[in-house]
Specification:
The relative contact order is 0.23. This protein has three helices and two strands. It has helices at about 1-5, 15-25, 40-55, and strands at about 30, 60-65.
């Protein structure tokens, strides 16, 4: 469909900011669905991804998917 033609799934290492900067290059939106990892990885990794998105100059939308079980 047209929507899936505009979506690209990329992988990055949440603890490697350089991989995240490369992953978001040219994107206009980012969905962060980090879960099931130690809380420190979730927090640090989400911060790294948000920082990479902000620094990209192209990302206008950042969606954080979480759950009620995360404190």
């Amino acid at each position: 469909s047209e929507a899936t033609d505009r979506v690209e799934f990329v992988k990055g290492d949440l603890l490697d900011p350089a991989s995240l900067h490369a992953a978001v290059q040219g994107a206009n939106g980012v969905v962060c669905a980090a879960a099931g990892m130690p809380l420190t990885v979730d927090r640090t990794g989400t911060r790294h991804l948000a920082e990479a998105a902000a620094a990209s100059g192209t990302v206008r939308h950042f969606v954080l998917v979480s759950s009620m079980g995360v404190t």
